[in-house]
Amino acid sequence: MEQHVSIWPVLVLAIIHFFGTRLRFLAGVPRSVWLSMAGGVSVAYVFLHLFPELSEGQQHVERAFVGEGFLRHHVYIMALIGLSVFYGLERKIVAAKEEQQEKKGENKPPPGMFWLHIASFSVYNALIGYILFTREEGSMQQLILFSVAMALHFIVNDFGLQEHHHERYRKYGRWVLVLALVVGWGTGYLLELSHTLVVLVLSFVGGGVILNVLKEELPEQRKSRYWAFALGAFLYAILLLSL
User: Fold this and answer.
1) Which domain holds residue 198?
2) How far apart are CA 92 and CA 110, in angstroms?
3) Is residue 133 part of a domain?
4) pLDDT tens, residue by residue, 192-235
5) How many domains are contained in the chain?
């Protein structure tokens, strides 16, 4: 596969950050059917395609890190770390918003928390960009499946960040995330990580995807459409299992 193919998924993901918040029909309560379906697709990809791939990659990790007990499960530990990091970040942002609401009547966290949130998602985007570059070594099918799942996941993330930070995200945050995505992808030209490290990065991202989807679906005030989430997961699962 030619080494420029993955630039197209990167451009699509960048366009989502540029224009995703302008998709007004996805906003509002109850939660959009399309956002719930997008979340279902992302989670289905992680459980049915990414985790089985990581299970195979665990062999490389075991050879690189010799250990007993829990040390033999580095891949799944990294997935847990990814989930835990983004859960802790979300709780901190929500607490900061509540504090600002009580003190100043503003329904958004202070600037410092905004930049912490964006910095965290910048690392996340950079990792995804790098993974897209490494997907060029595999089949076109793998690249497309990963790209579709991440594109829908980015739409979900955009609306979550928009809800937290409002105009700050529109003016600054989305541009930073686009830059991080491109830098992550471009790093693939300059730095080749070992297969072991790529597997660990994939695992961390997988844990982050699960948390970032579920945190948008679970709050009661969102009035999420469970049937849409389940339908998206089911349809993408059927696609993944049939390929």
Assistant:
1) 7-242
2) 11
3) yes
4) 888 888 888 999 999 999 999 988 887 766 677 888 999 999 99
5) 1
